[in-house]
Amino acid sequence: TDAEVNTRKKTFTEVQTERLEQAERTILIKCPPKINEKKLLQYLSSHGKINSHFFFENRGIHALIEFSEKNSIASLQDVIGIPSATEHHVVPFKSRLFTFTLKNPVGQAAAETPIHFAPQSHIPVKDLIQKLCSADSISSQMYSLLNEYQLTEENIKLRFLACSLVRDFARAYFPDSVVKPFGSSVNTFGKLGCDVDMFLDFHETRKHTTKMKKGPFEMEYQMKRLPSERLATQKILSVIGDCLDHFGPGCVSVQKILNARCPLVKFSHQPTGFQCDLSVSNSIAIKSSELLYIYGCLDSRVRALVFSIRCWARVHGLTNSVPGAWITNFSLTMMVMFFLQKRSPPIIPTLDRLRELADEEDKHVIGGYDCSFVSDLSKINPTKNKETLDVLLCDFFEYFGNFDFRKNSINLRKGKEVNKPESSPLYIWNPFEQDLNISKNVNQPQLEKFVALARESAWILQKEDKTQRMINKEPWGLAALLIPFGKSNPDKIKNRVKGIGSETIKSLLDSLKLSNMNSLQKAVGK
C-alpha cells in the first residue's frame, strides 16, 4: 500500500521519534463489557480531538486512544476519580491507565455494531499450515506466513505505549530520560507475542552541548560519582524496578537481574499483556536494531525469508524460548542476511558497503568500535536480483546444509566466509563488536541437528511433487517443512542420521588424509 511505502522510507530514528511522541499522547482504558464504541468516542472527544483508536481483548475489553494534543490527557485526568479504598488501599500514582464502568448499565443499549478487536497474537502453527496449503506458490506461502506473524500497527502502538508508561516512572527521578524499545519490537523482524525489550536513555542531554560553549565559565552539574558505570546502572535499575513493583499499576512479577552481563529488570505489564525487559542504554544494541531495520526495509523478500526460516526452526526445536545451547533467533536472522549478501547479484549490501555510503552524521564510534553505516535508505541502490522466494528458500537449506562449519565463519561486514578465529562449532561475527561471536552458545549437537534438518528440508523441496500433493490434500512446499519430520515418515529420520554420520566421516577422512574414501566408508558400514 502507498501508506506503507511512505512509512518504509523514513530513517530508523525518524520512525522511533515519531512513535515515541505519539505514545506520549496515548491512554489505555479498560472498558465495561457492553461498551458502545460511538458513545465512548463521543465522550472522549469532549476532551480533545482523537487521532486514532482501537480495541483489543486481554482479560476484558481495552481501548487504546491516541489524542492529537497531549493536554487532552490532562483535561481527562482532571475528571477521573481515585478508586474507593474498600478492601484495598491504593498507591495514589496517577498514570494513563484508566478503568471506565457504566453509571447506568441497565439503561444502556448494547452497541448496534459489534466492536472489532485488533488481534494481539498470531494463529497456531496447525492453522497456519491449513492456510498455507491454499496458496499457489511457495513464495505466496511465505508472504502469507509473514502477514500472519508480523507485528501489526496496533501492536506496535501498544509496545511504544508500554515504554512511555515506564518513562513516566523514570522521569520522577530523571526528568529528561526516555524509555525506548529496541530489538524485535522495532527492527521489522518481531512477531506477534514477542517480549518488549526497552532501555532507559539519559543521553538526550547531549543535544544542548552547543549552547554550553557560550559564556566565560565552564559549568557542570554536581552529581553523585560512582566507581563504575555498571554500578550506576545497577543502582538506577534497582530503584526503578522497586518503583514499578511497589507503585506501577499492572506491573507484576518484577524480577531484578542485576548481576547479568547486561543488568536488567524483567516484569509483566498486565494492561498491555507484554512481558518486558528493561535495561539501561546500550548504544550497540540500538545500532543492531537499526541495521536489521535497514535490511528489512530494502527488499520484501528479506523479511519473508527470515520469518519462514524462524518458524521452521521453532517447529523442529532448533530454537527455544529458554536460553541454552540452541541457535538464537538473532543468529538465525544473521545467517539469512549473510546468505542474501552472497547471492549473485547480492540482495542486500554488506555492512562494509553500508559504511562506505555513510556521511558525517552517520559516523558513530561506540566503545572503540566503528558502528558507522548509512541511515538514509534512498542512498542504497535497490538490488538487480530477481530470484523468487521459492528458489531462495530451497537454496538457503542447500547452502547451509553443505556449509563447512568446521573451517569457516560467517562475517556480515565482508559478506564472505572467513576462517574461524576460534573453535566454537558455529562462529558468526558480531557485526559491530568485532571480537565477539554472537553464536558462542551453540554446541556441536545443536549445529549438527541444524545441518541435518537443512539437508532434509532441501531434499523435500527438491523431490516433492507439488501437484500430486495438492490433489491429495497433503501439505506441500513451506507447509510440508512445518510438520516435525519424525511424525510424517520414520524412514526420513534414518536419512537424517546418515547425514550426520557422513559429516563425522568427512572429518575423520580429513584428519587421516585418506586417499581411498571407499575403504573407510565400507569399514564404518555407512
TrEMBL record:
Domain PAP-associated: 391-426
GO molecular function: metal ion binding; poly(A) RNA polymerase activity
Keywords per UniProt: Magnesium, Metal-binding, Transferase
Pfam families: MTPAP-like_central, PAP_assoc, RL
InterPro entries for the chain: MTPAP-like_central (IPR054708), NT_sf (IPR043519), PAP_assoc (IPR002058), RL (IPR041252)
Gene3D superfamilies: 1.10.1410.10, Beta Polymerase, domain 2 (3.30.460.10)
Cofactor(s) required, per the database record: Mg(2+); Mn(2+)
GO CC, alphabetical: mitochondrion
Occurrences of domain Poly(A) RNA polymerase mitochondrial-like central palm (ranges): 138-296
PANTHER family the record matches: POLY A POLYMERASE CID PAP -RELATED (PTHR12271), POLY(A) RNA POLYMERASE, MITOCHONDRIAL (PTHR12271:SF133)
The protein's name: PAPD1 protein
